[in-house]
Amino acid sequence: GSGTRFVMEKFIDENSLSVRKKLELTSNEAVKQAVIAGLGSSIMPLIGIRNELANGQLRIIKVKGLPLRSTWRLIWLKDKKPSPAAAAFREYILENRQAIIREQFGWIDPFLS
């Protein structure tokens, strides 16, 4: 998304990296397919390339300063009482966040070492 692009462009600028040619595509899937087709390389969210890393279609190129870390936030309307389901979901996330992170993102670590 645009947040990923902003962080990537900031990283490139701060590290004085040169980009010879740029190709702008409209989705992460299009970017993945372009890289798989040999059209270049990209900085992408790891969560979006899990299967391609596992089956060997893509690999991670080690670059100092990467991967970039991001923080996700759980948000809700300030003046609106949440439904019972929304309240239960929020409580579940808050109580189990570390386990959720391990279960959903623990697969990433072997690809970074």
Taken as a percent bin, the fraction of beta residues is: under 5%
Instruction: Please trace the helix and strand order, writing H or E for each element.
Output: HHHHH
**Parts with pLDDT < 50 across at least 5 consecutive residues:** none
The 3D shape can be described as: globular
Q: Summarize model confidence as the mean pLDDT.
A: 89
> Using only CA atoms, what is the Rg?
18 Å
Measured between the Cα atoms of the first and last residue, the distance is 26 Å
Helix/strand-derived category reads mainly alpha
Number of strands: 0
Major sheet description:
none
How would you describe what is shown here?
- The protein contains 5 helices and no strands.
- The chain is an all-alpha fold and 113 residues long.
- The chain folds into 2 domains: 1-70, no CATH class; 71-113, no CATH class.
- The chain is globular.
- The mean pLDDT is 89.
Write the layout of secondary structure elements.
Blueprint: H1 2-14, H2 28-36, H3 50-54, H4 84-105, H5 109-112
